[in-house]
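REVIEWER CHECKLIST
Item 1: Sequence provided? yes
Item 2: Single chain? yes
Item 3: Sequence as submitted:
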Amino acid sequence: MSAPEASSSLGRGPRSLVGSALAAAATCGSLLALNGLIEPGDWLSAAVTAVVLLAALTAAVRAAGRAAWLPSLAGTVLGLLGLVVQYGGPRAGTPTLPTPEAAQRTWALAGEGVRLIQESMVPMPPDRGGELIVVAAAMCVFLLVDALALGADTPALGALPLVAFWLPAVLLAFPTNGWALFWTGLAYLLLLALSSAPPVNSSARLRQGSTVVAGAVGALVLAIVAGPLLSALPAWAAVSLPNLGRGIVGPLQLSGELDLRDSLGTRSGQVVLRYTVGDPPADDGASDDAAALAPAPSPSGSARSVVPDARAVGPLRAFSVSDFDGRTWHRGDGGTRNPWASADQVLGFGWEPTDVVDPDDPRLVRVDVDIEGLEQSELPISTFPRLLDVPGSWMYDRARDEVVGSNPTSSGLSYRMRVVVPALTAEDLRGAQIGNPPGSEDFLALPATEHLQGTRALVAELTAQATTPYEQAMAIQSYLRSPANFTYDPRVPPARSGDAVWDFLRPEGRRGYCVQFATAMAVMARTLDIPTRVAVGFLPGEAELNDGRFTYTVTGRQAHAWPELYFEDLGWVRFEPTPAEQTGLPPVWSDPFAGLTSQGPVPTDDINDRDNGSDVALPTVSGGPVGPGAGAAGPGRWAPYAIGGGVPALAGAVVWFLVLRTRRPVELTCEHAWHQLRRNLARHASIDWSDATTPRAAVRTVRARVAEVSGRELEPQAVEALMRLASAVEQERYAPRPSTPTSGELHRWLGTVRHAVERQVSDRSRRGGGPSALPDAP
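Item 4: Structure as written out by the authors:
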């Protein structure tokens, strides 16, 4: 049996036109899912234009013909011709005739687009070859949706092709545009609603509605009950920096490897820890027998009081990385881990195990930390010397200044630090020299990348006027931190070479997030023989003043990386090259405007929410060179689209004319004709019957309803045709050797009944009645 087009509930007429429009709208909506994967350009407008023109063409062919396959075939052929016309020209943006040479150029351009997709990092540049791939994919998705929803009368399956544009984002774990889901879902639901048959009676309507409501309530209850149970399972969804998600995703873990080619997605709003900062109370000092104060490492020689806030304490560092291979940071060998004697033992550079802290020291600040959603072997601590009181078994790595536990942190862990904030100033650093850091790690190693000499030349130019290591570091930090030079962006530009730092520094790059900025400064400082490492931890987070103490809520948004440079007699000193929109003010000693600003609390109430990035790393594809991308969109490119779209439209008009001249009625079977009659009467005359109704009972229902509505019996010719059709259906269903009428007879009976019923019902409507007054069918 053939699959006639007329069998579709959306097959022809106004519903068909609306169905084509909804299929096009769903396809265009799903294209928005690619917004985060491809840089802005003409690709979106080109794809939308192609889908709209293709929808108009298929709708016209469907209105003219009867075969279900004809609109898809015409759309495929004319869509391919349109691609050749638009993209096969000898010059970009110049339409051409669909010649074999143009087809070859189009095919070659498509190959370039495939290579671009394989070699690019997210977001992909809007190259013309990539645009061709996107436009062709949009046309294919629309044709599949159109064929399934309108041609095959299975609109529910039309959702399958629409998923195609979400697959790249899902596979790469990259966030998509929320509007893509909204518009696609809205158009798809409207398409389903358009194709649905009316309910058979009030009881069936109530039964169907009750089923839907019960299913929705059951799903909601299941989500409410199962959600907390699943999230409470051990290691349910442990993730790592830069792999942070959104919402309650399980314990977070900072990754020991930082890849410069990774992009960020939506930042995690999950709370990982909270801490308070304030002056220590009078009884919060050291033990009674530790009253003497050892010489404090204060280079300026003068102790001073500090404002007890997050800027004074600095970020909480978990660990540092030192080995860089040109693309990724790795953990080095490190030093020896030993337990410390007690909570009164000072941990940090410049202090000996026997040194003690005077509880009245004006540099002392108390920090109380409560872990919530963090699963980390290294304890987040201040970068300054501190006394640490933490339950459990913990070791201290003196070379790295890290506190490492035998078991990772977990929700409910609380610990206390008394931080000795040094009176470090720019003058102290300006007079300091570089030294040899403790430990066996090489903090001067540089990867043998292809553009290392270019980086050296840039650093030499930036530091030409600097006379000390500190001034050199400040010149590098100011260059990277300047918004005129670089942009904070969670998206990483595509790889242009095998040197990730050079890709970030070159004019075509200059966009990234904390890992790119910290790495660039670390490598640039190492070219000047300044020992450098990259620290990983957390920025302060949201601040709130309670009872004279600042409370900070730290989420995944505050996961951060920064460079630390080593100076003799001062130890590891933090610098902040990442722009202020992510980090706020730099440390006082590296703030060129420190004398012009107050040292108030760090303004972190919204500073870390300004970007939409999160530390969600994408799987990395080939890092080879990428071909040049297309330029920015310009108004002149609309003319080629109009010309390119006009050719398929003209060809479609010709096909429509030929179809009108040659169309033939499709082959009908008895069941097919009966189904079509039932659908038509329900739509135009509100006459319907249930699936359990026999054909003979359906004849009685139709005659009774027509008489009730029109006030007169159904016309004799229509009654005869209806009875013949019902008899044929009974024969086909129940007779061992049915006498099957021809397709022409079925068409004739179907047309006679349909036209007679519609005529009598419409006459009644014009006299003031209408189908809406009909009672429900039995």
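Item 5: Key structural point noted by reviewer: The mean pLDDT is 76.
Item 6: Recommendation: ____
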